[in-house]
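Fold this sequence, please.
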Amino acid sequence: MSLQKKFLTLAAPVALLALGGCAAGLPTQVSRFQAMPAPQGQTFVIQAADEQKRGGLEFAQYADLVRRHLIAQGYSEAPSAEQASFVVELDYGVDNGREQVVARPDPFARYGWGYGFGYRPVYSRFGYYGHPRHPFFYGWHDPFFSPFGGGYDIDTYTVFTSFLDMNIRRTADGQALFEGIAQARSTTNALPALVPNLVEAMFTGFPGNSGETVRITVPSPRQR
């Protein structure tokens, strides 16, 4: 089973993220296993793990982001796979989403308990749940529902899970050198907005500590 499938099956807690006109950072969960050699003149080529994406313009755009990061690390691009020290296999995608339902207390409603209350963020061990109407909010499970009945507005929205899967193997013998997956959840399924941030998270602290899962907040364009 691929690293991608393992993590999507486990549904590990990651931050909810959506891209919008907000200056907040973009939280992403990154897991990496690596035995990368220090840069000493090694060369690479980038290929799509999914054959249907090979030769596509969209894939070429995301591959170029990865290429720039690898060059910044000190590696060089090879003219062909036969001449490369290692091959980088790249995959990405987003699911069909699932609907979430959130009940918000109506500040104008009357409560049998003698008082009303407005929306507040709720803390869990995965962070604070923000307001679902806000483009950035945290958590993996459903937001807070108060035990006090009555006087609620109901919001429904769709949450999408996106991923970037990157594997690097040595050309000479096929030895695995790097296996990494970056995951995020969002209220958008627009890959051109999501994938660049997943790539940025993947290369933050690259190649990372083998076997470690980290939560990385990618700065928004306004913060960079």
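The helical segments are 3-10, 57-73, 191-202. Residues 3-23, 110-148 have pLDDT under 50 and may be disordered.
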